[in-house]
Automatic annotation (TrEMBL):
<feature type="compositionally biased region" description="Polar residues">
    <location>
        <begin position="1"/>
        <end position="22"/>
    </location>
</feature>
<protein>
    <recommendedName>
        <fullName>BHLH domain-containing protein</fullName>
    </recommendedName>
</protein>
<dbReference type="InterPro" id="IPR011598">
    <property type="entry name" value="bHLH_dom"/>
</dbReference>
<feature type="domain" description="BHLH">
    <location>
        <begin position="61"/>
        <end position="112"/>
    </location>
</feature>
<dbReference type="GO" id="GO:0005634">
    <property type="term" value="C:nucleus"/>
</dbReference>
<feature type="region of interest" description="Disordered">
    <location>
        <begin position="1"/>
        <end position="75"/>
    </location>
</feature>
<dbReference type="GO" id="GO:0000981">
    <property type="term" value="F:DNA-binding transcription factor activity, RNA polymerase II-specific"/>
</dbReference>
<keyword id="KW-0238">DNA-binding</keyword>
<dbReference type="GO" id="GO:0046983">
    <property type="term" value="F:protein dimerization activity"/>
</dbReference>
<keyword id="KW-0539">Nucleus</keyword>
<feature type="compositionally biased region" description="Low complexity">
    <location>
        <begin position="31"/>
        <end position="40"/>
    </location>
</feature>
<dbReference type="GO" id="GO:0000978">
    <property type="term" value="F:RNA polymerase II cis-regulatory region sequence-specific DNA binding"/>
</dbReference>
<keyword id="KW-0805">Transcription regulation</keyword>
<dbReference type="InterPro" id="IPR036638">
    <property type="entry name" value="HLH_DNA-bd_sf"/>
</dbReference>
<dbReference type="Pfam" id="PF00010">
    <property type="entry name" value="HLH"/>
</dbReference>
<dbReference type="InterPro" id="IPR052207">
    <property type="entry name" value="Max-like/E-box_TFs"/>
</dbReference>
<feature type="compositionally biased region" description="Basic and acidic residues">
    <location>
        <begin position="50"/>
        <end position="75"/>
    </location>
</feature>
Length: 136
């Protein structure tokens, strides 16, 4: 599945960049995605007060944030599979094997597409006209 966060810039870790002596200010590189006070003021267009940076996150805070993000991601996936089991006939009340849910969902969608094609053909056979937006 595509990730919803695919629009975000690449934040992959590189040991070469981490160990280099290039100044972080030159590349606006931070160990946290939290914007600094100065950068948020620049974005907002305000320039009142001295430019102070927020303190960087501790390793424990980073770990806690990562764990919370991962739990949220997994919960969203679980909710999606639960929703599919409610929508796809034949999946209600079963245990949730993700591979079975996905396979039966694909089968159900393919069936729906075939039925739609048959309905469009029947309408046209009877002399009716079907708008292109309703064609599969």
């Amino acid at each position: 599945m595509p990730s919803a966060a695919s629009n975000s810039p690449d934040t992959s870790y590189s040991p070469h960049l981490a160990s280099s002596s290039i100044k972080a200010e030159e590349h606006n590189d931070r160990s946290s995605s939290t914007p600094t006070v100065s950068s948020s003021k620049q974005v907002a267009g305000a320039s009142a007060g001295p430019d102070k940076e927020k303190p960087r996150l501790t390793e424990q805070e980073k770990k806690s944030n990562h764990i919370a993000s991962e739990q949220k991601r997994r919960a969203a996936i679980r909710d999606g599979f639960d929703r599919l089991t409610e929508l796809v006939p034949g999946l209600e009340g079963q245990g949730r094997s993700e591979s079975i849910v996905l396979r039966k969902t694909v089968d159900f969608i393919e069936l729906q597409i075939r039925e739609r094609q048959e309905l469009v053909a029947e309408i046209e056979r009877r002399g009716g006209r079907v708008d292109e937006t309703f064609r599969p």
